[in-house]
Every structure is written in structure tokens, then in C-alpha cells.
Write a structure and sequence with these properties.
Chain lengths: 401, 166
């Protein structure tokens, strides 16, 4: 079971290359499902399909190739409905117009998260050899999925107490404020949303899942791809390749295009050196929009050449822990950053790693919880944190077990 | 919302078990609430979730402000409408600052709880009295709990210790 995610700046060709990769995988005999987390219909457009009907299941596009338009309405009701209803009731008790209230309780980004729940279900169904996901422009949602991990301490340590406290004080708070307090069903819904998100993330960070970044050979576009590469690694996703799209053919260029070709060559060289050791694939600017499974598969075949389009390219593991004598070494891949951009802290059972605007709160594996941090070292592309067993803590554990 | 209408579901349990909780329970709950509040704030600060929480608080602020506008009737709505627009145009700016001159502020500017209290006050004047009373009661219980905590030695700290990278 292989899961491939495609992301990149708006308009770079994510949908085209995701659909192309899927079409090629299908042509090679893999049972392939391609779906988009984008509520627009561009995936159907690229595949040359009619506008999909809502609630329709996967549509067979070609032999072995299926496309799914995710209908999040139903999921929305299941995952968010209870919580949203509560918010609506709060607003209602405050006299807000129901129409207006409805608008206020729409969660930004919720649709994409729910689409990823669909991905989870499809992956778990075991029906597919390959699931290709055409993601939204920024990888914001994938980063959002790190939230359950960041919330773990909260959910383990604080949430149960909070529920208890709320249980006792609910009548007082309700009467005093005139605002309804969340009932158990609402709290249950929050808990299951948390568990669902953690589950989706578990699937997307498995060794058989990887992200492919789509960019064009332009400085501004690639600058964003670089940042995405760093932050996805920080949050533990495996990025195993970069697809550079819309490369001009070199022959028969007029003056205007010759300038573009020269500038693209400079950017291509930079992308190759920055992204090393990731695989960099190139996609030529076609004379027409590649639409339909054949055209898409052909484009993908040119892009991947001799490479197996669906194989996970060997890349540094996003996160590893290994034993070094009595100690442990935790290693986090952090490509394209300098030592000065990285900040590290420890709090109880968590490691807090900050890179620029992104912070990952990492729940430590149990062996490391009983260790003290004995040092941290940055080398290009990687942060290493050394842990030394804390005799006091190991002894306490031995006694209790 | 009048009582003659269908009671909303959250009042469903009001007929049955809507008793004043046992004072002992409240004391314990308040004690737990204190620990809780302190850990949550620290946790949020140190998890880099401040922005997220602030985002939520801001959204809540906008929501509540809209609630206030609707509740206070159409009379002042043109005025408040402008305000809400400004809030949407400048999401970076904490919404409460846009209108803080309007309401008498008895609470701090920054923490979400105080913002919430302020906002609830703008929602309905009757509710404000209720809140003040409830807060007084809870505060007393909380104070008692804090004294108890201080005596028993406080929770282990959840501070982040910085690690140097070489
Ligand atoms: N290599 C290419 N040659 C020619 N046209 C291309 C190529 N790649 C993409 N296109 C065209 O560019 C347009 C945008 O591509 P696509 O929809 O795949 O981008 P996207 O990154 O998915 O955009 P969005 O961010 O809006 O989802 C489409 O019309 C597509 O057919
Ligand atoms: Mg697209």
C-alpha cells in the first residue's frame, strides 16, 4: 500500500502531476485511486471527466485508475456536527441570527482535514495498491496534523481533569452565564476528532507514504518549496522527491524565450544542489494542457524516465532514535536550515523543536522519557540530540514494575 | 429565548439533574481548575500554540461582538458593522482593541479568560450580574483551593528547559 501526496504553490501543476503519476501507476498494473482534497473540481477537469456528482463513489477513469471526488458534507456532519451544533446553540443563546451563526462556525481548513479522513478510510480499506492525493497549495493541513501530537500532553494530562471540572461546575456556569456549557456528546466529539487526526497522521507518516513537492524553475516559487521541505521534515513527513514543472524546451527559442531558458537553467541547477539527496524530476512545458489519462500518463512517463514512479526514493529518515553505548541519539532531519535558525527545549516528556515560524512538540518515546538530555548537535540537514539514562528514573521504574 | 419555546437540547438535563452541586465537589473541582488553568497557560505558551489560541480567541471575539450587535438590536448596528469589517480586514489586530473604548474595562487586556468575561458582558447586561456572582463564588472556592495547594507544595513545573546546540 503506497500513499503519495502532492503539494506545492498555487498553479504549479500539482493536480496535473498527481493525476499523471496516478495514471502511470495504473498503466503499470497498480490498482490506483487518485483523489483531491481541493473542493474545486480541477482533478476531474484534468482527467477529462464530467463534473462529478456529489456523494458518488470512485469513478473508473481507465483500466486500474479510479478517481474520487471527496464529498465532505457527510463527514462534516459526523466529525464536526456535534461541536458546531454546540457553538450554534451558544450563539443562539446570545441572540445571534441563525444564518449568521452558521457562517461563523465554519472552520477554516476543515474541508481539507476531512478529505484526509477520507484518505485514511480508503487506505485502510485495503482495496488499493496506490493512493495518490492532490493536496492544497500550502502544506498547512499536513502541519495541522501535527496538532494531535502537540496536544497529547494536554489530552493525556489536562483534558480528563477539565472534563471532570466541567462536569461538576456545569450547572453553576450555565446558570450564571446564561451560556450553554458543552455536554458530554460535544466533549466526546472533540475526543474522537483528536483521535481521528492522530490516526490520519499515523498513516501519512508511515514509511510507505511520502510527499512530492511540485515547483517551477523560478526563484519565488522554489523559495516556497524550500520552506515547505523544511517544515514537512520538521513535522516528520517524508519528502522523497521534487518535480520541477513547466521547463521550456531549449530548441528553436526566440529572444524572449531564450532569456527564460537561461534563467530556468540557473534555477534548475540551484534546485538540484539544494534538494540533494532528494530525486529531482523535470517536466517539460507542453504545447497544450495535458488533459485525460493518456496525455497525463505520457507526461508522467517523460518525467520519471527510467525511475519507478511509485517507488519510495531512499531519503534520510525524518526521525530516528538509535542506541549509542548506554546512550540514545535522536535525530531529526532539518534540510535547508542553518544552526542559528534552530531552537531546542525539553519539557517533561516532550522535546520542543523550533525552526523559524514552525514549532514541533514531540512526544518522546518512552525509553527517552527516563533520560536526561546530555547534548545537542547540529550538522547540515540534521539535528542530533543525545540522551543519557537517568539512573534515578530507571531505578524508580524498576521498583514499580 | 423564551421558556415556552422548545427547550434546546443543552437544557434537556435541566429538568432532571439541575441541582446545585455539592459544595465539597465544587471545592475539589475548583482546586483542580486552578492547577488546570496554570498548566494550560504554561503549556500553551510553551507549545507555540499561543498564536493558535489567540486566533481562536480572536474568532470568538468577532463572534461575540456579532452576538452583541445582534442582541443590542438594530439601533447601533451601523456603527458596530463598521467595526466588524475592520476586524475582518485586519486579522492581525486583536479585535477587542478596535472597540475597547466603548466598554468599561475591569479586566486585563490580554488573557483569553478576561477577554471572554468582557465579551460576555457585552452580550447581555443580566448575564453580567450572574457572572459576577458566580465568579465571586468560584473565586472564593479557588482562593481556598490555592491556599491548600500552597501548603501542600505545588505541582512539578512544566517549564521548558532550553538546550544549547553545538
Ligand atoms: N507541464 C505542463 N505543460 C503545460 N501545461 C501544464 C503543465 N502543467 C500544468 N499545466 C496546466 O497548467 C494549469 C494549472 O495546472 P494544475 O491545475 O495542475 O495546477 P495546480 O498546482 O493543481 O493548481 P491549483 O493550485 O490551482 O490546484 C492547468 O491548465 C494545466 O493543464
Ligand atoms: Mg490543483
Amino acid at each position: 500500500m503506497r500513499v503519495m501526496l502532492f503539494t506545492g504553490k498555487g498553479g504549479v501543476g500539482k493536480t496535473t502531476l498527481a493525476a499523471g503519476t496516478a495514471a502511470l501507476a495504473a498503466r503499470d498494473g497498480n490498482r490506483t485511486l487518485v483523489l483531491s482534497t481541493d473542493p474545486a473540481h480541477s482533478l476531474a477537469d484534468a482527467l477529462g471527466l464530467a463534473e462529478p456528482e456529489l456523494g458518488q463513489g470512485p469513478i473508473e477513469v481507465a483500466e486500474n485508475l479510479w478517481s474520487l471526488h471527496v464529498d465532505v458534507r457527510d463527514r462534516f456532519a459526523r466529525a464536526w456536527g456535534e461541536i458546531q451544533q454546540y457553538l450554534l446553540d451558544v450563539l443562539d443563546s446570545a441572540g445571534v441570527d441563525p444564518m449568521e451563526a452558521e457562517e461563523l462556525t465554519v472552520l477554516p481548513g476543515a474541508e481539507e482535514v476531512l478529505a484526509l479522513l477520507e484518505v485514511r478510510d480508503r487506505v485502510r480499506s485495503g482495496e488499493w495498491d496506490v493512493v495518490v492525493v492532490d493536496c492544497a497549495p500550502t502544506a498547512e493541513t499536513l502541519r495541522l496534523l501535527a496538532l494531535p501530537d502537540a496536544l497529547r500532553w494536554y489530552m493525556d494530562r489536562i483534558w480528563p481533569t477539565e472534563r471532570r471540572v466541567l462536569g461538576v461546575l456545569r450547572p453553576i456556569l450555565r446558570r450564571a452565564s446564561g451560556v450553554p456549557m458543552p455536554r458530554d456528546q460535544v466533549l466526546d466529539a472533540i475526543e474522537s476528532l483528536h483521535a481521528d487526526l492522530a490516526d490520519v497522521r499515523a498513516i501519512l507518516t508511515e514509511p510507505t507514504s511520502s510527499v512530492r513537492l511540485v515547483t517551477t524553475p523560478e526563484a519565488v516559487v522554489f523559495a516556497e518549496a524550500r520552506r515547505t521541505l523544511t517544515s514537512l521534515s520538521l513535522y516528520g513527513y517524508r519528502v522523497d522527491g521534487v518535480l520541477v514543472n513547466r521547463i521550456f524546451p531549449v530548441t528553436g527559442a526566440d529572444d524572449w524565450r531564450a532569456k527564460w531558458i537561461a534563467s530556468q537553467a540557473v534555477q534548475l541547477a540551484r534546485i538540484e544542489s539544494d534538494c540533494d539527496p532528494l530525486r529531482v524530476w523535470r517536466a517539460g512545458y507542453q504545447a497544450a494542457e495535458p488533459v485525460g489519462p493518456e496525455a497525463l500518463a505520457q507526461l508522467a512517463a517523460d518525467v520519471y524516465g527510467q525511475d519507478d514512479p511509485i517507488a519510495v526514493v531512499e531519503t534520510p529518515e525524518p526521525l530516528t532514535v538509535r542506541r549509542v553505548g548506554e546512550d540514545f541519539e535522536l535525530s531529526i532531519a532539518l534540510p535547508l536550515v542553518a544552526k542559528g535558525d534552530v531552537d531546542l527545549g525539553r519539557r517533561l516528556d516532550e522535546l520542543v523543536v523550533t525552526v523559524g515560524p514552525h514549532r514541533r512538540v514531540l512526544s518522546l518515546p518512552s525509553a527517552l522519557r527516563r533520560c536526561t538530555v546530555s547534548g545537542a548537535h547540529f550538522e547540515p540537514g540534521r539535528l542530533l540530540v543525545m540522551f543519557t539514562p537517568d539512573p534515578a528514573q530507571w531505578r524508580r521504574e524498576d521498583k514499580s514494575s | 429565548m423564551s421558556d415556552s419555546e422548545h427547550p434546546p437540547w443543552w437544557h434537556a438535563d435541566a429538568e432532571g439533574s439541575d441541582e446545585q452541586p455539592n459544595p465539597g465537589d465544587v471545592g475539589t473541582a475548583a482546586q483542580e481548575a486552578v492547577k488546570l488553568a496554570a498548566s494550560v497557560v504554561q503549556w500553551a505558551e510553551q507549545s507555540g500554540l499561543n498564536d493558535t489560541l489567540r486566533g481562536i480567541a480572536e474568532q470568538a471575539t468577532v463572534t461575540m461582538r456579532t452576538a452583541a450587535r445582534t442582541a443590542s438590536g438594530a439601533a447601533a448596528s451601523a456603527d458596530v458593522d463598521d467595526e466588524v469589517d475592520v476586524v475582518f480586514e485586519e486579522p492581525g489586530e486583536p479585535p477587542h482593541t478596535a472597540a475597547s473604548g466603548e466598554h468599561q474595562r475591569t479586566t486585563c487586556d490580554t488573557c483569553p479568560i478576561c477577554q471572554g468575561v468582557d465579551l460576555l458582558k457585552t452580550v447581555s447586561p443580566e448575564a453580567a450580574n450572574g457572572i459576577t456572582e458566580a465568579l465571586a463564588a468560584v473565586t472564593a472556592a479557588v482562593k481556598q483551593a490555592v491556599d491548600g495547594l500552597a501548603a501542600s507544595g505545588s505541582e512539578s513545573s512544566t517549564k521548558v528547559e532550553h538546550i544549547d546546540i553545538d
